[in-house]
Amino acid sequence: MNPLKVRNAFAYDKIINWFPGHMAKGLRLITEKLNAVQVVIEVRDARIPISSINHKFEPIAQRKDRLIVYNKTDLAHPATEQAVVKAFKQYKRQEVVFTNANEDLNIKRIISYLAKKAKATGTAAEKELTTTVMVVGMPNVGKSSLINSLRRIGIKKGKAAPTGAIPGITRTVAGTIKVLDSPKIYLIDTPGVMIPHIADPISAIKVALTGAISDHLSDEEVIADYLLFQLNQAQDYSYMKLYNIQEPTDDIKVFLPQVAKYIGALKRGGEYNLAAAAQFLIKQYRLGKLGRYTLDDIRPEALERSLTEESLDPISRRQQKKADKIEERKQKRLEIQRRIAEREKANLEDNM
Ligand SMILES: Nc1nc2c(ncn2[C@@H]2O[C@H](COP(=O)(O)OP(=O)(O)OP(=O)(O)O)[C@@H](O)[C@H]2O)c(=O)[nH]1
Ligand SMILES: [Mg+2]
Predict the structure, then answer these.
(1) Which residue CA neighbors atom 8 of ligand 1 most closely?
(2) Which of 52, 110, 204, 241 is the most exposed place for a label (fewest CB within 10 A)?
(3) Which residues belong to any copy of the CP-type G domain (predicted)?
């Protein structure tokens, strides 16, 4: 087999923006309900320990006791946990827990952290130790699954928060969900909130590949290409055996037709359906069928660069803030237009 020529870097400069109305509203409700909680659990994706940090949560989490949970650790590279735990301790003085909410991994650690934060509430006669916790994070990282897992372990009860494989399942900040009896621990589920403007296009691709951005908004063939780039960077050519491909390739135009052939994705005229092949590959990644891949650079020097404040370029920070403001204003305008349209539709129906 000839050694494969791979790209040095992935070229992409498109900006993906996704901040629908329910997220802006969710963020508002999260801020409003903050007074009622003692602890904020910020859930992130273990496959993108840096790219799943949403600076929108900083002002929220800073005011409370914060626990950072990196979920879907079963899908991340096994070296991620140790590297990230160490770097966060060193550069952020923050404790982080890695979980697999589907298999209740490390859930007891979270329960004991929350139990220690319990405070006396209620009247003097019937004082009860209680912790109320808000669970926030980017879309689809597993916030609702984590709540269900805590409840399974804490009070041995079934699912209370709806979950699903696409982002945007939880639409609003609803009531509290009990996950422990003594002390009483109540959790509040919230809708996933996306970073309003991701300045780095490659971060946006990583976020999309993990499933936090609605698929129709991002170019699936580009995301599949990024996946191929990552596999080849890791010199992992297991895709050859998986999809019956003779030669490794770093060219998505060569790769996708072969995957389409393997899964039998054909268009009406008999052409290969490349979009279907790209969707298939993305799904395989999300299910862990291609192996455990962490997409952010977790080498010690890279983590140091990402986590130390000084390394953040003040100009790009200013640009980010400006872009956030513009995006927020746009979303507000869209929300108002949507409401007007709804009202007009309702009036029209009334008059019919
Ligand atoms: N492999 C794996 N999948 C997980 C894990 N946690 C959650 N999932 C899956 O990820 C998907 C999203 O889970 P949810 O709990 O709905 O995510 P969420 O953060 O509440 O999503 P939104 O409400 O849309 O913001 C579901 O298909 C879950 O089964 C995990 O630890 N490992
Ligand atoms: Mg949810």
Answers:
(1) 142
(2) 241
(3) 27-196
**Do residues 193 and 171 touch, judged by C-beta distance below 8 A?**
no
CA atoms within 13 A on the CB side of 205: 22
When the pLDDT of each residue in the chain is averaged and rounded to a whole number, the result is 91
- Residue closest by Cα to atom 17 of ligand 1: 142
* Tens digits of residue pLDDT in 102-150: 999 999 999 999 999 998 876 666 678 999 999 999 999 999 999 999 9
How far apart (Å, rounded) are the C-alpha atoms in residues 183 and 27? 28
- Residue 61 in 3-state DSSP? helix
pLDDT at 82: 98
Q: How far is CA 262 from CA 4, 87, 255, 265, 270, in A?
A: 22, 42, 11, 8, 14
- Ligand 1 neighbour 211 (Cβ under 6 A): no
**3-state DSSP of 104-142:** CECHHHHHHHHHHCCEEECCCCCCEEEEEEEEEECCCCC
Could you give the C-alpha distances from 122 to 40, 126, 184, 187, 318, in angstroms and in order? 21, 6, 12, 18, 45
Q: Which atom of ligand 1 is nearest to the CA of 75?
A: 1
Ligand 1 atom with least separation from CA of 137: 19
Q: Which of 64, 133, 135, 70 is nearest to 96 (CA)?
A: 70
Whether ligand 1 lies within 6 angstroms of the CB of 165 is answered as yes
- Tokens 């309900």 locate to 33
Q: Give yes or no for residue 106 CB within 6 A of ligand 1.
A: no
Q: Is the CB of 72 under 6 A from ligand 1?
A: yes
Q: How far is the CA of 286 from the centre of ligand 2 (A)?
A: 17
3-state helix, strand, coil in the chain (%, to 5): 50, 15, 40
Mean pLDDT of 246-261: 97
Phi/psi at 218 (nearest 5 deg)? -110, 160
